[in-house]
Design brief:
Helix content: 10-25%
Radius of gyration: 20 Å
Number of domains: 1
CATH architecture: 4-Layer Sandwich
CATH superfamily: Ribonuclease Z/Hydroxyacylglutathione hydrolase-like
Number of strands: 15
Number of helices: 8
Length: 295
């Protein structure tokens, strides 16, 4: 399994684990119920704050999928820790429907902590973009959970020489640029997609196609056996492994998949056995479970 991955297996009692998938280092912890925070150090992006593990403090941008406490509870500590370390105030992206409540949450923490908690919170909806740098943009996509929720796609952008100029040498291309000619096209590549907590319905939405083209997909898989049915998983706003199996062909373009948010009721070996037994071979080989925090 996970032939495209290298990883440091968590020891008993560890609260953090590292993976390397599709060219990205991933640091994080995700246990369904207690906490979820996934960090991509190369991009300086974190998805959800969990209880604010130390690594997430160095992410300049925090993308909140929704505002349940196991995903947003550490956000105040995240903001405060960046200030304590004299880092730039972070940007927090979140579902627009919860922007007001998040502001109230932070204002309460300011009153308790007697500090500024400097940051920029941006409420977003699918269809909008946040320009993180010249090379990367972040876009939310629609997911389904009992509270307002959304996943995120990180797009890498690059410039590609227009086809009609392909035969020109560097000097000629420079001359065209100096004359004000646009000689390149902007090319976008979905690099990373993060679902957060959601039913599997997001896979079926044509508007979410780019998440299924991302090199790295980070996807919840809360339930792995019949102790919770597919129907109950959907009612709770979560994904069952059987939902993934039923849509196995939809993940053909993802280079690697990190499965997260397994229910705390499971042991690590339960998860490994279920993935091996249920996932089709091609899908199984590109999936890696995040199992820090599981016995």
């Amino acid at each position: 399994m996970a032939t495209v991955a290298t990883r440091r297996e968590a020891r008993a009692g560890d609260r953090f684990v590292e993976h390397e998938l599709a060219g990205y280092k991933i640091e994080g912890v995700s246990v369904g119920g207690p906490e979820t925070s996934i960090v991509l150090p190369q991009l300086k992006v974190a998805f959800d704050s969990g209880r604010c593990p130390q690594r997430c403090v160095y992410a300049d941008v925090m993308c909140l999928s929704h505002t349940h406490m196991d995903h947003v509870g550490g956000c105040g500590m995240y903001i405060a820790s960046r200030g304590l370390l004299s880092l730039e105030p972070p940007t927090v992206l979140l579902p627009r429907a919860r922007a007001g409540a998040f502001s109230t949450f932070i204002e309460s923490l300011r009153a308790l902590d007697d500090s500024e908690l400097k940051h920029e919170a941006i409420g977003m909806v699918p269809g909008e973009r946040y320009k993180m740098s010249k090379l990367f943009e972040i876009a939310p996509f629609k997911t389904t959970h009992p509270v307002p929720s959304q996943g995120y796609i990180v797009y890498g952008t690059k410039q590609k020489l227009k086809a009609r100029y392909a035969g020109l040498d560097g000097k000629a291309i420079k001359q065209l640029r100096d004359e004000g000619e646009e000689v390149t096209d902007k090319i976008e590549v979905p690099q990373v997609a993060f679902t957060g907590d959601t039913t599997a319905d997001w896979v079926d939405d044509p508007a979410n196609a780019d998440a299924l083209r991302a090199k790295l997909l980070i996807m919840e898989c809360t339930f792995i056996d019949d102790s919770v049915s597919k129907e109950d998983a959907e009612r709770f706003g979560h994904t069952h492994i059987d939902d993934i199996v039923a849509r196995a062909d939809k993940f053909a373009e993802n280079e690697a998949i990190l499965l997260i948010h397994f229910s705390a009721r499971y042991k690590a070996e339960d998860v490994r056995e279920a993935l091996k037994a249920k996932l089709p071979k091609e899908l199984y080989e590109k999936c890696t479970p995040m199992l820090v925090g599981y016995d």
